[in-house]
Amino acid sequence: MFAIAASLAVSSLPAHGADTFPSHPVTFVVPFPPGGGVDPVARLVGTKLAEKWGQPVIVNNRPGASGNIGSDLVARAAPDGHTLLVTTNGFLINPHVLSPANKARADAMADFKPVAMLSTTPLVALVHPSVPARNLADLAALARKEPGLLFAGSGNGSPMHMAGELFKKAAGVSMTYSPYRGIGLAMNDVLGGHVKVIFVGLAGGKAQIDSGRLVPLATLESRRTPLLPDVPTAEEQGFPGTLMDAWFGMYGPRDLPPGLVARINEDVNTVLKDPAVAKQLAEMSQAPEPMNPSAFAAKVKADYDRYGRIIRDAHIQPE
Predict the structure, then answer these.
(1) 311, exposed or middle or buried, with CB in 10 Å at 0-12, 13-18, 19+?
(2) What's the whole-number mean pLDDT along residues 120-134?
(3) CB 203 within 8 Å of CB 284
(4) Largest Cα–Cα distance of the chain, in whole Å?
(5) 207-226 confidence digits (pLDDT tens)
(6) How far apart are CA 38 and CA 248, in angstroms?
(7) Among 13-17, 34-38, 290-294, whose mean pLDDT is lowest?
(8) Distance between CA atoms of 189 and 184, rounded to whole angstroms?
(9) Which tops the pLDDT comparison, 181 or 298?
């Protein structure tokens, strides 16, 4: 656990409505270990909300079981806004790729209320400098010469995995996914030249790009990212249907009242629109993505359905 101190006095008012929220410390449950991915974003947003709310925000890291331990904890929490899940879009992928024995007890769509979008980081196709490819057409040509060319990623059915499958389909090539138990292990094998390609969130690959240890071929967004403005998108390069990103969002228990959802969403969006917060997110290779509750709920549903289609089309097997 990590407490973020608030500067204002603690309120003793009840916490059942938007007008009295929060009445005691708020917990952000992050279903991953401290330090990586979503954790620093949760802490940044939590620090600013603590100042705004006049209550501490506690980031409670509850890793394990593909994020299910933390998410199940939030699903069982009181729907008063004081326990919220902050997680990745992998939360919407897991139901499609985990076997019944490994799935969460709580249902991602039925047991949670989408509250706020936080940030996104584009996925980027990277290769080792020794690979004779400097754009996606080169990579497709290489894959035709070397059927089964390996691409690395973290976990079965992860955004990295799906990004590679979308590229394979758009390019009409055969490549083989090599899953690792963590992004660090996958990146190490690409840096060592053992695997030639990785599709990874820019937050996880920016340092290697800046150092010249890996070469970016494309981003998988609808438009060029200001975080990597000189790198064209896959669609720009003639590979449609390849959109994929990594994003972080906030959820509450399913019975969280609409008025409280709106209040928390408004406060989160105020934080995300702060230029100082946007600057800190950019330093993490993230971009703020404020959305109202209905827009975020629509994105959650659309992405959940899209991930299911990609996984079925690619014949990705549950594990």
Answers:
(1) buried
(2) 95
(3) yes
(4) 68
(5) 999 999 999 999 999 999 98
(6) 7
(7) 13-17
(8) 9
(9) 298
Residue 113, burial from CB neighbour count under 10 angstroms (0-12, 13-18, 19+): buried
Given the structure tokens 């899209």, which residue do they identify?
A: 306
Distance from C-alpha of 54 to C-alpha of 173, rounded to nearest angstrom = 55
Q: Are 140 and 293 in contact (CB under 8 A)?
A: no
**DSSP bridge pairs for 83:** 27
| pLDDT, tens digit (0-9, with 9 covering 90-100), for 58-88 | 999 999 888 889 999 999 999 999 999 999 9
Question: Is the four-CA dihedral 256, 71, 298, 229 of positive or negative sign?
Answer: positive
pLDDT of residue 292: 98
How far does Cα 189 stand from its chain's mean position?
22
- Rg of the chain over Cα atoms, rounded to whole angstroms, equals 20
N residues, the chain = 319
Instruction: Return the HEC string of the chain.
Output: CEEECCCCCCCCCCCCCCCCCCCCCEEEEECCCCCCCHHHHHHHHHHHHHHHHCCCEEEEECCCHHHHHHHHHHHCCCCCCCEEEEEECHHHHHHHHCCCCCCCCCCCCCCEEEEEEEEEEEEEEEECCCCCCCCHHHHHHHHHHCCCEEEEEECCCCHHHHHHHHHHHHHCCCEEEEEECCHHHHHHHHHCCCCCEEEEEHHHHHHHHHHCCCEEEEECCCCCCCCCCCCCECCCCCCCCCCCEEEEEEEEECCCCHHHHHHHHHHHHHHHCCHHHHHHHHHCCCEECCCCHHHHHHHHHHHHHHHHHHHHHCCCCCC
Name the β-bridge partners of 58.
3, 27
Residue type, 203: A
Q: Which residue has the tokens 């959802």?
A: 261
Mean pLDDT value across residues 161-185:
93
> Per the omega criterion (within 30 degrees of 0), is the bond before 258 cis?
no
CA separation for the pair 160, 116 (Å, rounded): 23
